[in-house]
Amino acid sequence: MNLVKDISNYSSITCNSKEVQAASIFVCIKGTHADGHKYIEQAASAGASLIVISNEFAKAEGVFLDRLKKEYLQVEFLFSDDTRMSLAELAAKFFNEPSKHIDVYGVTGTNGKTTVTHLIQEIFDDEGCALLGTIGVRYKSSDQYIELVNTTPQSNLIQEELSKVYARNLRKLTMEVSSHALDQKRCHGIEFKYSIVTNLTQDHLDYHHNMEEYLMAKAEIFKQTKHAAILNPDNEYFSRFKEEALKSKLDIWTFAINTTHADLRAVNVKISQTGLEYGLEVSDSLKAKYLAVQNQESDKAKADLDSFLKKSRIKLKLNGTFNIYNSLAAFLLALLEGISLEVLFEKAQTLRAVPGRFETITAELKPLCIVDYAHSPDGLENILKGARDLIRNSNFTRLICVFGCGGDRDITKRPKMGRIAYDLADLVYVTSDNPRSEEPRQIIADILAGIPNLEKIEIIENRADAIKRAVSTALATDVVVIAGKGHEDYQILKDKTIHFDDREHVRKALII
User: Which is more confident, 353 or 45?
Assistant: First the structure.
């Protein structure tokens, strides 16, 4: 792409032919459902000045391209072995490489990305920190979300958002980075200051085929990270992530509950309906780093730090063991970036739960209902174990679970999720969850294949009916977990998308 000497000659950059205007750059991307190469002529007729085409297409369609060159003299055609990479590189140049002027914190992993990014934004709110992720983009934690299509959008849209952040005089951005985005080069051209890997468990194997491919897609983030990788040694894939991060010559910082040699560790954990509480154990290397960043390296400062850690406890309104990990990841980044422990402990008490993540809904003399986005085996296990922790530490007695699995996605996780629900819940309602083009009955049958017997299983295909029955028949001492959709307010049924919000249906059921 070095052939583009003056990027300022162009009015916009896009891979969507409908967005092409006079003097646009149009990059042809071959996706799962559409191929941008089919819209080359449409882009040319709309006024594109530069069209980037794959070498593979050019070899196959030379006659077609020769005609276009003669017909559209204003268009310059460039050819690329990887048009996704080209889109990312051109977009970074078009928007003046904003990530070089902003501290970008990339958060990847199977579960926890949304919560970790939200916690980071709230912790750094006073310094000006934007967020880009599943729910959308927002420039400060009090803003409404601006909705986005994907967890991580196409590279031109990411670079545009980064430029907006810079234009608002914000100098930090925390963003969710999906494995799909990394594999599809959507984040190419971004310099991450720190990258966080929350965990790795089975998900998206319909796309990545196996766990090694999935891991390597996630590990791509290290190649674009400047300072360090923040990793979870309690996760079984920690050693592999560490190995890949070291290949990029990154420092490694760790957070954990069970691993005693972690840099930041939660100890003496207490879980109740009001939230989480734990002490912090800090490694010598992190203490040294922290004091250096704080410019307090005297013996007295070291003694004061040890004294503070011994007497202080983190108190969070969040719940579930998984949120201990999420908070530790955010806190570790904060300490590395100069947030003082005193400020951190104070901020912890005001941090808010993310919509649709262990979101509790209840009413007087009614069951406690928890709505969560969990849609993978590990996610479902985490949310149900979190609910079990609540039951053990309160007056609740029984755990009820409502869940389904999405259509046109990894089939192998369905029986695993069925078994997890069966093992951890006292009563399970198996239902639909975005069946897409598949028949809901077949998805449910796949789930049931992992369940030993149906003694505590009820099958209600209609999700609204399943939620209504589970909540309206539950006792006041029950905890009802509705898993799979969280903040989402839609259902995808074959060729249509309808409005559907689990939280709305829970509230209706609670007042019946």
Answer: 45
Cα separations in angstroms, 210 against 177, 215, 216, 236, 405: 19, 9, 10, 15, 19
DSSP state of 145: P
Strand partners for 106: 175, 195
Within 8 A by CB and 6+ apart from 48, the residues are: 20, 23, 24, 25, 26, 75
Q: Give residue-wise pLDDT tens across range 29-42.
A: 998 788 999 999 99
Measured from the Cβ of residue 2, the count of other Cβ atoms closer than 10 Å reads 5
Q: By the 8 A CB rule, do 230 and 196 touch?
A: yes
- Of the chain, the percentage scoring pLDDT greater than 90 comes to 84
- As a whole number of angstroms, the distance between CA 427 and CA 373 comes to 19
pLDDT band of 278, cuts 50, 70, 90 = very high
Burial of 285 (C-beta count, 10 Å sphere; 0-12/13-18/19+): exposed
Provide the angle, in degrees to the nearest 10, between the axes of the packed helices 238-247 and 211-219.
Answer: 40
pLDDT at 1: 47
Residue 354: pLDDT band by 50, 70, 90 thresholds? confident
DSSP of 58-91: HHH-HHHHHHHHHH-TT-EEEEES-HHHHHHHHH
User: Which residues touch 143 (CB under 8 Å, ≥6 apart)?
Assistant: none
**CB 130, CB 165: distance < 8 Å:** yes
**Cα R_g (the chain), whole angstroms:** 25
How is residue 161 annotated by DSSP? H
Distances (CA, A) of 229 to 9, 38, 276: 38, 40, 26
Asked whether residue 319 carries a pLDDT value surpassing 70, the answer given is yes
Helix axes 341-348, 113-123, angle to 10 degrees: 120
- In sequence order, what DSSP letters do the residues of 476-499 get, joined into one string? TTEEEEEES-TT--EEEETTEEEE
Give the tokens for residue 345: 């402990």
The Cα–Cα gap between 336 and 77 comes to 46
CA distances to 41, 267, 270 from 315, rounded to whole Å, are: 59, 13, 10
In whole angstroms, give the CA distance from residue 148 to residue 140. Answer: 16
CB atoms within 10 A of CB 72: 19
Q: Would you call 159 helix, strand, or coil by DSSP?
A: helix
Give the β-pairing of 251-256 and 225-231.
Answer: parallel
Measured torsion, CA atoms of residues 210, 262, 319, 433, in degrees rounded to the nearest 10 = 0
Q: Which domains does the chain have, with CATH numbers?
A: 7-93 (3.40.1390.10), 95-348 (3.40.1190.10), 359-510 (3.90.190.20)
